[in-house]
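User: Sequence in, structure out. Go.
Assistant: Echoing your sequence, followed by the structure tokens.
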Amino acid sequence: MGVDSLGYMALKVSKLDAWRALLEQVFGMEPRERDGAIDYRIDSYHHRLTLTLDTTDSVEAIGWEVGTSEKLAALVDRLKGLGVAVVEEGPALRAQRKVKELYSFTCPMIGNRQELYYGPLISNTPFAPSRGISGYKTGTLGLGHVVYWVKDLAASVKFYQDVMGFAISDYIAWDDNDAVFMHCNKRHHTLALMQDGPNTPAGELMHLMVEANSYDDVGYGYDLVRDMGIPVMIEPGKHSNDHMQSFYLQTPSGFWLEYGYGGLEIGPDWEIRNYDAPMLWGHRFVGG
């Protein structure tokens, strides 16, 4: 028993206007402004992303959803049993995150702030995209996936398996190191971990992925990104392991954002494999 999905991400950003243009004009996300921050909606949840204006850029928190209060309590106890300091958050932050129960801790493997929650607020009005899109593949699959570099890959994988409740989906051999892809629901991977290196420091977010309901949404988004002069980091292509058709852009905060469609889902007959390349076709690095 562990987490059930990636629920939300909160970001501190120094270029709020550039972020607004990206999320609203390209991704069609619905803004909900509040004092000092903007929450962004992409489905029935009150929000999935939060931007707070700051002098620097960082991931303030990633939020893992747990399906029941009992499962949340058990996960908190498991973390505390390992000596991890877990904080029960008060009503102010619960009100911002729009959840009923909320805990936070610093991940001993990645080193980032993570939040565990139960009871997300569901809106009674339909998602109203800010451009004409078909929407996002979320629901029980969550917001999407995140990829992080870590100092100790084997220990990090073990922590997310034994404590956080993830299972391995597959591997990709990448520059003599395995990238490990892990799932906590039917989405092929909600988390991927990669060994750090000289230019990829441990604890930094490589990218966040969001999955569209239509490949046309992704294709038109790619045209918008090119027209707006937003840096494309990896050209459109199809991944070898999850078959996601996507491209990658650089956000105003530096980390990447993957816009994808058509990812595989984990079924009862899933087989773990080790791939020798991340792409079936395309996905060429720009300038590389």
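User: And one key feature?
Assistant: The domain at 5-120 is CATH 3.10.180.10 (2,3-Dihydroxybiphenyl 1,2-Dioxygenase; domain 1).
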